Amino acid sequence: MPVGTYLNPTPAGGILKTVGKMSSLRIVPPARDAFEPVLSLRLALEYTPLKWLTHIHIEPLDLASLLALRWGAFAAFEDSTWTAQSVWRGVKSFRIGMMGDLLRNAHRNLESEQDEQQQMKMKGEREFYRQAVQALHNYFFQFAVHGTLEILHFEWVDGDVTGPNPLLLDEEAAKEEGSKWFSAPGTTWKGLKEVWLGGVLMDEVAMHILKQRLDGLERLVVWADLAAPQLCGDIQTVDGRDWLDIDIGPTVQATAELPEYEDMYETQSEGMDGKVESMVVPFVLQLS
User: Fold this and answer.
1) Per-state percent for the chain, helix, strand, coil, to nearest 5
2) Each residue's pLDDT tens digit, 56-95
3) Residue 278, SS3 per DSSP
4) Hey, which of 57, 137, 233, 245 would disulfide with 26, CB 3.0 to 4.6 Å?
Protein backbone atom coordinates (compact mmCIF):
# COMPACT_ATOMS: atom_id res chain seq x y z
CA MET A 1 0.00 0.00 0.00
CA PRO A 2 1.68 3.28 -1.08
CA VAL A 3 2.43 6.10 1.32
CA GLY A 4 -0.36 8.65 1.33
CA THR A 5 -3.18 6.20 0.71
CA TYR A 6 -6.41 7.71 2.03
CA LEU A 7 -8.75 5.57 4.02
CA ASN A 8 -12.36 6.18 4.87
CA PRO A 9 -12.61 5.34 8.59
CA THR A 10 -15.82 3.34 8.14
CA PRO A 11 -14.29 0.25 6.48
CA ALA A 12 -11.05 0.55 8.47
CA GLY A 13 -11.66 -2.76 10.19
CA GLY A 14 -12.02 -4.57 6.88
CA ILE A 15 -8.81 -3.04 5.56
CA LEU A 16 -6.91 -4.01 8.70
CA LYS A 17 -8.03 -7.61 8.28
CA THR A 18 -6.33 -7.76 4.89
CA VAL A 19 -2.98 -6.87 6.49
CA GLY A 20 -3.35 -9.02 9.58
CA LYS A 21 0.37 -9.79 9.81
CA MET A 22 1.53 -6.18 9.98
CA SER A 23 3.83 -5.46 12.91
CA SER A 24 4.10 -1.67 12.61
CA LEU A 25 1.33 0.88 12.07
CA ARG A 26 1.60 4.62 11.52
CA ILE A 27 -1.51 6.76 12.00
CA VAL A 28 -1.66 10.31 10.64
CA PRO A 29 -4.88 11.96 11.86
CA PRO A 30 -6.35 14.88 9.88
CA ALA A 31 -5.40 18.37 11.01
CA ARG A 32 -8.99 19.19 12.01
CA ASP A 33 -12.01 17.25 13.25
CA ALA A 34 -9.87 14.23 14.05
CA PHE A 35 -11.99 12.79 16.87
CA GLU A 36 -14.35 10.63 14.80
CA PRO A 37 -11.79 9.09 12.42
CA VAL A 38 -9.36 8.36 15.26
CA LEU A 39 -12.15 6.80 17.30
CA SER A 40 -13.18 4.69 14.30
CA LEU A 41 -9.66 3.43 13.83
CA ARG A 42 -9.24 2.65 17.53
CA LEU A 43 -12.40 0.56 17.48
CA ALA A 44 -11.26 -1.15 14.28
CA LEU A 45 -7.97 -2.06 15.92
CA GLU A 46 -9.76 -3.47 18.94
CA TYR A 47 -12.12 -5.60 16.85
CA THR A 48 -9.42 -6.92 14.53
CA PRO A 49 -7.04 -9.70 15.58
CA LEU A 50 -3.63 -8.14 14.94
CA LYS A 51 -1.42 -10.38 17.02
CA TRP A 52 1.76 -9.29 15.19
CA LEU A 53 1.22 -5.57 15.83
CA THR A 54 3.93 -4.37 18.24
CA HIS A 55 4.66 -0.78 17.17
CA ILE A 56 2.30 2.19 16.72
CA HIS A 57 3.27 5.71 15.67
CA ILE A 58 0.62 8.48 15.92
CA GLU A 59 1.34 12.02 14.77
CA PRO A 60 0.10 14.72 14.95
CA LEU A 61 -2.16 14.16 17.95
CA ASP A 62 -4.37 16.83 19.49
CA LEU A 63 -6.47 16.70 22.66
CA ALA A 64 -9.60 15.45 20.86
CA SER A 65 -7.65 12.62 19.23
CA LEU A 66 -6.08 11.71 22.55
CA LEU A 67 -9.51 11.39 24.16
CA ALA A 68 -10.68 9.22 21.26
CA LEU A 69 -7.74 6.86 21.85
CA ARG A 70 -8.57 6.12 25.49
CA TRP A 71 -9.20 2.40 25.89
CA GLY A 72 -9.16 1.82 29.63
CA ALA A 73 -12.21 0.68 31.58
CA PHE A 74 -14.68 3.49 32.37
CA ALA A 75 -12.59 5.93 30.29
CA ALA A 76 -13.05 4.91 26.66
CA PHE A 77 -15.52 6.54 24.29
CA GLU A 78 -17.82 3.86 22.92
CA ASP A 79 -17.62 0.48 24.60
CA SER A 80 -14.08 -0.80 24.78
CA THR A 81 -14.32 -4.47 23.85
CA TRP A 82 -12.86 -7.30 25.89
CA THR A 83 -10.21 -7.62 23.16
CA ALA A 84 -9.03 -4.01 23.62
CA GLN A 85 -6.60 -4.81 26.41
CA SER A 86 -4.98 -7.61 24.43
CA VAL A 87 -4.47 -5.26 21.48
CA TRP A 88 -2.92 -2.39 23.43
CA ARG A 89 -0.99 -4.64 25.79
CA GLY A 90 0.58 -6.22 22.72
CA VAL A 91 2.14 -2.90 21.72
CA LYS A 92 5.80 -2.86 22.76
CA SER A 93 6.90 0.37 21.07
CA PHE A 94 4.73 3.50 21.01
CA ARG A 95 5.58 6.82 19.37
CA ILE A 96 3.42 9.93 19.83
CA GLY A 97 3.79 13.39 18.32
CA MET A 98 1.58 15.69 20.44
CA MET A 99 0.46 19.06 19.15
CA GLY A 100 2.04 21.87 21.11
CA ASP A 101 -0.61 24.51 20.47
CA LEU A 102 -2.24 23.85 23.84
CA LEU A 103 0.96 25.05 25.56
CA ARG A 104 1.01 28.52 24.12
CA ASN A 105 0.22 31.26 26.64
CA ALA A 106 -0.64 28.65 29.29
CA HIS A 107 1.70 30.18 31.87
CA ARG A 108 1.28 33.88 31.17
CA ASN A 109 0.36 36.04 34.13
CA LEU A 110 -3.32 36.89 33.94
CA GLU A 111 -2.84 39.98 36.10
CA SER A 112 -0.44 41.41 33.53
CA GLU A 113 -3.32 41.77 31.08
CA GLN A 114 -5.45 44.85 31.57
CA ASP A 115 -7.95 43.98 28.87
CA GLU A 116 -10.84 41.97 30.33
CA GLN A 117 -11.54 40.16 27.06
CA GLN A 118 -7.90 39.12 26.80
CA GLN A 119 -7.99 37.86 30.39
CA MET A 120 -11.01 35.69 29.60
CA LYS A 121 -9.22 34.28 26.57
CA MET A 122 -6.15 33.44 28.63
CA LYS A 123 -8.27 31.78 31.32
CA GLY A 124 -9.79 29.58 28.62
CA GLU A 125 -6.34 28.68 27.30
CA ARG A 126 -5.14 27.79 30.77
CA GLU A 127 -8.17 25.62 31.45
CA PHE A 128 -7.66 23.85 28.12
CA TYR A 129 -4.03 23.24 29.07
CA ARG A 130 -5.03 21.75 32.42
CA GLN A 131 -7.56 19.43 30.78
CA ALA A 132 -4.88 18.25 28.36
CA VAL A 133 -2.42 17.57 31.20
CA GLN A 134 -5.01 15.47 33.03
CA ALA A 135 -5.99 13.60 29.86
CA LEU A 136 -2.37 12.82 28.96
CA HIS A 137 -1.60 11.64 32.49
CA ASN A 138 -4.62 9.33 32.50
CA TYR A 139 -3.83 8.01 29.02
CA PHE A 140 -0.32 6.89 29.92
CA PHE A 141 -1.57 5.37 33.16
CA GLN A 142 -3.45 2.81 31.04
CA PHE A 143 -0.12 1.52 29.72
CA ALA A 144 1.83 1.87 32.95
CA VAL A 145 -0.58 -0.26 34.97
CA HIS A 146 -0.14 -3.25 32.62
CA GLY A 147 3.65 -3.04 32.35
CA THR A 148 3.91 -4.35 28.78
CA LEU A 149 5.16 -1.25 26.93
CA GLU A 150 8.94 -1.31 26.48
CA ILE A 151 9.74 1.74 24.32
CA LEU A 152 8.06 5.15 24.48
CA HIS A 153 8.94 7.97 22.07
CA PHE A 154 7.10 11.21 22.86
CA GLU A 155 7.58 14.59 21.20
CA TRP A 156 5.86 17.94 21.42
CA VAL A 157 5.44 18.90 17.77
CA ASP A 158 4.03 21.87 15.83
CA GLY A 159 6.88 24.34 16.10
CA ASP A 160 9.67 24.91 18.60
CA VAL A 161 7.56 24.32 21.69
CA THR A 162 8.88 23.26 25.08
CA GLY A 163 6.27 21.26 26.97
CA PRO A 164 5.82 19.38 30.23
CA ASN A 165 7.39 15.98 30.76
CA PRO A 166 4.55 13.51 29.92
CA LEU A 167 5.83 11.07 32.55
CA LEU A 168 6.01 13.69 35.31
CA LEU A 169 2.76 15.59 34.83
CA ASP A 170 1.96 15.53 38.54
CA GLU A 171 5.22 17.44 39.12
CA GLU A 172 4.18 19.93 36.43
CA ALA A 173 0.80 20.44 38.08
CA ALA A 174 2.45 21.03 41.45
CA LYS A 175 4.15 24.12 40.01
CA GLU A 176 0.72 25.68 39.52
CA GLU A 177 -0.84 24.74 42.85
CA GLY A 178 -1.96 21.57 41.14
CA SER A 179 -3.74 20.23 44.22
CA LYS A 180 -6.61 22.51 43.26
CA TRP A 181 -7.13 20.89 39.87
CA PHE A 182 -4.93 17.80 39.69
CA SER A 183 -5.10 15.11 42.36
CA ALA A 184 -3.71 12.06 40.53
CA PRO A 185 -0.55 10.55 42.05
CA GLY A 186 2.67 10.11 40.10
CA THR A 187 2.63 7.14 37.74
CA THR A 188 5.09 4.29 38.23
CA TRP A 189 6.00 2.00 35.34
CA LYS A 190 7.05 -1.62 35.09
CA GLY A 191 8.70 -2.90 31.94
CA LEU A 192 9.41 0.46 30.27
CA LYS A 193 13.06 0.21 29.24
CA GLU A 194 13.62 3.01 26.74
CA VAL A 195 12.23 6.56 26.68
CA TRP A 196 12.69 9.28 24.07
CA LEU A 197 11.44 12.77 25.00
CA GLY A 198 11.36 15.62 22.49
CA GLY A 199 10.52 19.20 23.41
CA VAL A 200 10.97 18.43 27.13
CA LEU A 201 13.47 20.07 29.48
CA MET A 202 15.62 17.52 31.28
CA ASP A 203 17.79 18.13 34.33
CA GLU A 204 19.28 15.96 37.06
CA VAL A 205 16.22 16.20 39.30
CA ALA A 206 13.82 15.09 36.57
CA MET A 207 16.17 12.26 35.60
CA HIS A 208 16.34 10.95 39.16
CA ILE A 209 12.57 11.04 39.54
CA LEU A 210 12.19 9.12 36.28
CA LYS A 211 14.69 6.51 37.45
CA GLN A 212 12.65 6.08 40.62
CA ARG A 213 9.35 5.67 38.83
CA LEU A 214 10.52 3.64 35.84
CA ASP A 215 11.75 0.42 37.34
CA GLY A 216 14.07 -1.12 34.76
CA LEU A 217 14.81 2.03 32.74
CA GLU A 218 17.86 1.35 30.58
CA ARG A 219 17.89 4.25 28.13
CA LEU A 220 16.80 7.90 28.29
CA VAL A 221 17.19 10.06 25.16
CA VAL A 222 16.25 13.76 24.97
CA TRP A 223 16.77 16.73 22.68
CA ALA A 224 20.38 17.75 23.25
CA ASP A 225 19.58 21.48 23.35
CA LEU A 226 17.05 20.97 26.17
CA ALA A 227 19.30 18.84 28.39
CA ALA A 228 21.03 20.39 31.40
CA PRO A 229 24.80 20.75 30.93
CA GLN A 230 25.42 18.45 33.91
CA LEU A 231 23.92 15.51 31.98
CA CYS A 232 26.44 13.44 30.03
CA GLY A 233 26.02 11.00 27.19
CA ASP A 234 26.41 10.37 23.50
CA ILE A 235 25.02 12.71 20.84
CA GLN A 236 23.25 11.20 17.86
CA THR A 237 21.46 12.93 15.00
CA VAL A 238 17.99 11.67 14.06
CA ASP A 239 15.88 13.39 11.39
CA GLY A 240 18.18 16.41 11.48
CA ARG A 241 17.99 16.93 15.24
CA ASP A 242 20.64 16.19 17.86
CA TRP A 243 19.55 13.85 20.64
CA LEU A 244 21.44 13.19 23.86
CA ASP A 245 21.54 9.53 24.91
CA ILE A 246 21.96 10.19 28.63
CA ASP A 247 24.29 8.17 30.80
CA ILE A 248 21.69 7.37 33.47
CA GLY A 249 23.93 5.20 35.63
CA PRO A 250 22.53 2.48 37.93
CA THR A 251 18.83 2.24 38.65
CA VAL A 252 17.69 4.29 41.65
CA GLN A 253 15.65 2.40 44.21
CA ALA A 254 12.32 3.84 45.30
CA THR A 255 13.72 4.73 48.74
CA ALA A 256 16.59 6.82 47.39
CA GLU A 257 16.72 10.54 48.22
CA LEU A 258 16.36 13.05 45.41
CA PRO A 259 18.74 15.98 44.87
CA GLU A 260 17.59 19.21 46.41
CA TYR A 261 16.85 21.77 44.38
CA GLU A 262 13.69 8.44 14.23
CA ASP A 263 12.39 7.63 11.84
CA MET A 264 9.67 5.38 13.13
CA TYR A 265 10.90 2.27 14.88
CA GLU A 266 10.45 -0.76 12.68
CA THR A 267 9.70 -3.92 14.62
CA GLN A 268 9.87 -7.43 13.26
CA SER A 269 7.99 -10.61 13.99
CA GLU A 270 7.90 -14.14 12.71
CA GLY A 271 5.10 -15.17 10.40
CA MET A 272 3.32 -18.51 10.37
CA ASP A 273 6.03 -19.94 8.10
CA GLY A 274 8.83 -18.83 10.41
CA LYS A 275 10.03 -16.04 8.13
CA VAL A 276 10.67 -12.64 9.63
CA GLU A 277 8.20 -10.07 8.32
CA SER A 278 7.81 -6.36 8.82
CA MET A 279 4.99 -4.33 7.36
CA VAL A 280 4.32 -0.62 7.72
CA VAL A 281 0.88 0.53 6.64
CA PRO A 282 0.46 4.33 6.64
CA PHE A 283 -2.98 5.74 7.34
CA VAL A 284 -4.08 9.28 6.55
CA LEU A 285 -7.62 9.50 7.85
CA GLN A 286 -10.23 11.88 6.48
CA LEU A 287 -13.84 12.43 7.38
CA SER A 288 -16.05 11.52 4.45
Assistant:
1) 30, 25, 45
2) 999 988 888 888 888 866 566 666 566 777 888 899 999 9
3) coil
4) 57
